[in-house]
Amino acid sequence: MKKKSHLPRESRPTSPVSEDERRGLHYSDFQIQNFRCLRDLTVGPMMRVNLIAGENNSGKTALLEALFLHSGAFNPALTMTVAGLRGIGTLKLEFGRPVQTPWSTLFSDLDESLQIRLVGHNASGRTRTIAINTTSDKGDLAAVRSISKSPPQNGQGSAASGSRADVLKWHHSGLGGEDIHLLFFDGPEIKTHPAAVSPPPFPGRFMSARWNPDFAEIAEQFGELEVEKKQDVLLNILRIIEPKLTRLSTILLGPTPMLHADVGIGKLIPVAFLGDGILRLTAIILWIIHTAGGVLLIDEVDNGFHYSHLGKIWSAIGATARQFNVQVFATTHSRECIVAAHRAFSETFEYELRLHRLERTGGGIRAVTYDQEALEGAIESGFEVR
Questions:
Q1: pLDDT value of residue 138
Q2: Which of 167, 200, 233 is the last residue of a domain?
Q3: Residue 290 dihedral angles phi and psi, to the nearest 5°
Q4: Among 118, 58, 33, 67, which Cα is nearest to 367's?
Q5: Shared-domain flag, residues 372 and 240
Q6: How high is the pLDDT of residue 95?
Q7: Range of 74's domain?
Q8: Which of 233, 303, 307, 349 shows its CA 20 to 30 Å from the CA of 89?
Q9: Which residues pair with 43 in a beta bridge?
Q10: 230: exposed, middle or buried (Cβ count in 10 Å: 0-12, 13-18, 19+)
Q11: Statement to judge: residues 159 and 43 lie in one domain
């Protein structure tokens, strides 16, 4: 699946950013209520690079999705993007309307009578909240009916009662103000009211576990690096996996430009031919660079990488994230990945890693956060941290 990013449409002034935000640390902790399998979860403290571990179905991907929605701030259409991240790309229609709303799966137990709350804090005490709920408010429904060719049925009920709500309310507060948008079906078409959506307070990107490379985008992003004479940033990092690499170049052979590499065989070859690991690392580093000052979310970060390269890869990710002021959140199932990240960050001047392990309890899911000392002790004792 192609990467997902926020799509700003209209500029508006926001309040001044804090020093933490300038350093790329947009989140010091994060709270989630009623989102997917996460009924009530608080994660933190967070650092520049955050690894999310836990058993299957413990909410790792859901945490990334919640952060993605929250970082998008003013854009309720991201609820559709999140559905696409799970491979839900089409809607079944009946009498010209979807049989099920695409946002129903966002609510815990598919109960649309609940309200989703996503609350982010940073170290400066700045707080932003997004509240998401279906609405039967008469004013909301009247606003939708006034611009809709095919008004909502009634906008009432929940999945639990067997009816469905056609209007979703997205309420963002923080940054010195608040914004309310409505997402609704106009026949088979999904619309937003008001139609204009402001840009997010900082850029955000999501690399799905189903990620498929966009070769044209990779070539374009590298071209921008070349213009700024920063191509060596990527070149030096890719040498971690391919030491013979001496040069990168964008070449147009056919309709799609592709990034090519010189590995000393007498001709340039597409980077894709060097293997999934080097292609994925290329995308991760380019996305960090092009998400400067923002947040990068990576599901199953170690996909395609041999364990022997993980230490150097984490060193590269950490150094690039620091250079371009990006906060990284990544999930993993691999103990080798966690150990490699810990060792890599232990060798730096500032340890900028946190491990957050999601654990199922009798009352739901909780997060256990490991700092450097706790993670070192857990690794030495052989404690399960995946």
A1: 87
A2: 200
A3: -90, 5
A4: 58
A5: yes
A6: 43
A7: 4-12+26-200
A8: 303
A9: 30
A10: middle
A11: yes
CA distance 10 to 14: 12
Name the residue among 147, 157, 74, 155 with its Cα closest to residue 113: 157
Gap between the Cα atoms of 314 and 233, Å rounded: 15
The two three-digit tokens of residue 5, written as one number: 């990013």
| One domain, residues 278 and 153 | no
pLDDT for 19: 52
- Give the pLDDT confidence score for residue 13 in this predicted structure: 29
pLDDT score, position 49: 97
Residues 132, 56 share a domain: yes
In a domain, residue 18? The reply is no
User: In the prediction, which pLDDT does 80 show?
Assistant: 83
Residue 246: left if φ>0, alpha if ψ -120 to 50, beta else—which one?
Answer: alpha
What six digits make up the tokens of 370? 């490991």
Predicted pLDDT at 4: 55
Biggest CA–CA distance in the chain, Å, is 71
pLDDT of residue 159: 32
Classify residue 113 by its DSSP letter: T
How many residues are present in the chain? 386
Are 4 and 84 spatial neighbours (Cβ–Cβ below 8 Å)?
yes
Q: What is the spatial distance between Cα 223 and Cα 317, in angstroms, rounded to a whole number?
A: 20
Strands 49-54 and 353-361: parallel
211 and 190 in a common domain: no
- 208-241 pLDDT per residue, tens: 888 888 899 999 999 999 999 889 999 999 998 8
3-class secondary-structure state, position 154:
coil
The bridge status of strand 364-370 relative to strand 353-361 is antiparallel
Give the type of residue at 332. T
Question: Which amino acid makes up residue 374?
Answer: A
Does residue 17 belong to any structural domain of this protein? no
Quote the number of domains for the chain.
2
Residue ranges in the chain whose pLDDT is less than 70 = 1-24, 87-100, 150-165, 187, 386
Same domain for 140 and 168: yes
190 and 46 belong to one structural domain = yes
215 and 334 in a single domain? The answer is yes
Stated as kind and residue range, the H or E segment containing 171 is: strand 167-174
Residue 364 CB partners (closer than 8 Å, separation 6+): 38, 39, 40, 41
From residue 107, give the alpha-carbon distance in Å to each of 33, 193, 241, 321.
Answer: 9, 21, 41, 32
The reported pLDDT for the residue numbered 93 is 45
